[in-house]
Amino acid sequence: MGYLFSIETLRLNNNGFVGELPSQLKNCRNLILFDLAENKLSGSIPEWLGASLRNLTILILQSNHFYGSIPPQLCHLTRIQLLDLSMNNISGTIPECLNSFTNLTQKGSSSQTIQHSFLVNLQGRFSEMLSYDDEASLIWKGLRAEFKSNLGLLKSIDLSSNKLIGEIPSEITYLLGLISLNLSRNQLTGQIPSRIGNLQELESLDLLRNQINGKIPTSLSLIASLGKLNLSENNLFGKIPTGTQLQSFDFAYDGNRLLCGAPLPRTCPEEEKGPRQSVLVNQDGQDGLIMQGYYISMGLGFAVGFWRVCGTLLLNKSCRYTYFNFLTFLNDWLHVKAAIICQRMLNR
């Protein structure tokens, strides 16, 4: 099989193949579709898949026994538009070089189908150009579906049901043409990338059963095309962003006990405190007015008392004489008392 240099489609799905992928297949450099789904193949994912088969547009390794990490060489598949590594034993982190998938960074597609043409000799004298359309069987929005007439429009990454760890790389938000992203049933941590809203073509996002934490990015509410969302069984918290789509997914948030807001029955603490906070604000305003009135009245009282005494001394002549005579007598008495005390101390 390694000598089929011109082969463009190789579908070996739904067989009982075991063992590792033979390295001779790296000679099939014209492969566009490579489907090995639902076998019993094992070993690590070969590096030559990305290093040698640069024309791959569709790679399906779903439902096998592959293990080890995702080789970074897969990022050389710049033409890839459908990558399915789901239901294996793949571990490690998601490569950060996903933005190298040039075909996935572009919106739309040049063709609705993936078509192949080939020349056939008839009776050794005539030749005729024939063509066929590729087809593939995939799990789409939770259900198995067949794609043929619209396979060229499908842009999808499915890494679900593995043992992947680490964070979702932010580079995934550069795949602007992505229609479906499935990272469910792994051990991913960290937060949902804040720029997830850049994926405006996204119709399906499944992050079920991971260990993702943090708040749901507000940008997620901006994806108008989103028709399927599953964030269940993670460690998300905070208020669900308000958006037409996000409030329509009734079961997308189950198992996140610290999430709140519609469509969940749990109201957020800030919503509960909203009216109470306004009352406290009013009360603070009233306290401020009371304190202001207190200081004003104290100042007025001091001014009135001061001018009442001083005014009496200035305007009433007899009171003024009496007051100053009292001050003179008090001064003389203090001097005499001080002199007597000093004399007694000297006699001792």
TrEMBL record:
Recorded GO CC terms: membrane
State one molecular function term (GO): kinase activity
State the annotated membrane topology for this chain.
Answer: Single-pass type I membrane protein
Gene3D superfamilies, alphabetized: Ribonuclease Inhibitor
Location in the cell: Membrane
Q: In which broad location class does this protein mainly occur, judging by the first location in its UniProt entry?
A: membrane
Q: Which Pfam families match?
A: LRR_1
Give the domain of life: Eukaryota
Q: Which UniProt keywords apply?
A: Glycoprotein, Kinase, Leucine-rich repeat, Membrane, Receptor, Repeat, Signal, Transferase, Transmembrane, Transmembrane helix
Q: What is this protein called?
A: Putative LRR receptor-like serine/threonine-protein kinase
Annotated organism of origin: Prunus yedoensis var. nudiflora
